[in-house]
Amino acid sequence: MVTDKGKKVKVSAAEKVNEENSVHLDGDLVVSIERLQEIQDELEKINEEASDKVLEVEQKYNEIRRPVYDKRSEIINSIPDFWLTAFLSHPALGELLTDEDQKIFKYLSSLEVEDSKDVKSGYSITFNFRPNPYFEDTKLTKTFTFLDEGTTKISATSIKWKEGMGLPNGVGPEKKGQNKRPFTEDSFFQWFSDTQQKDIIDEINDEVFLPVCLLIYSVLLFCKLLLFLKVINIPLVGMQIAELIKEDLWPNPLNYFNYVLHYLSLSLTHTHIRPLF
């Protein structure tokens, strides 16, 4: 019994030491976390300042780019079907144009992508058309405005189709004996009617929102890669179309126009005809 009491005394002493060490460790841990949080706050402040500086530089160079884009547009206007060719040569955007869309694109005189004055607040994409037999508008614009709560407000020109044309009736006049594809499902111009941006922030608990977003983002990247490789055929949605135009086609459309010229040149070479370019 004496031995048992001695063991109990030793165990109690050991537990007391462990408790003291635990309190000490907990105190050190709290201090370390507080210091770490201070450093993270400092880094966050620096990152915010860096972001502001980057935006200032981007806005400055947007102003510098504008007259250069204008000069580029003037030259493009002298090249027949430039934008139609560039669109059709793009591996993803080219899939969006129906035969009837291509007829409309022949009247496309210029394309403009413009950031908002405050770059982080959004951008707009404008298609300028010559007078045509399809709609009254000479300018079709779609605008994306990034809101503080993390959603995107989307607005677009409501196309004024001429009589017998338009989304409900098909883009061209009806011909007897021909079955038309549903224009509302296939046409690129349906994009201007798609102004709904679903807000899922309020529908998902904050604790799972970020992981879900990361998963969705990863899946979208993978699907976009497959789309470009044409392994699968997934229809692009509104924001994806806008991003492809803004970030890929608009900066250097000549890449896609030259793609056609390159293969046409090869074709002429193989047929022993001297290429014209």
TrEMBL record:
A Gene Ontology term for the protein's cellular component: nucleus
Transmembrane segments: 208-229
Alphabetically ordered keywords of this record: Chaperone, Coiled coil, Membrane, Transmembrane, Transmembrane helix
GO molecular function ontology, one term from the record: histone binding
GO biological process, one term: nucleosome assembly
Coiled coil feature spans: 29-60
Family under the similarity heading: Belongs to the nucleosome assembly protein (NAP) family.
Designated name of the protein: NAP1-related protein 2
Organism: Trapa natans
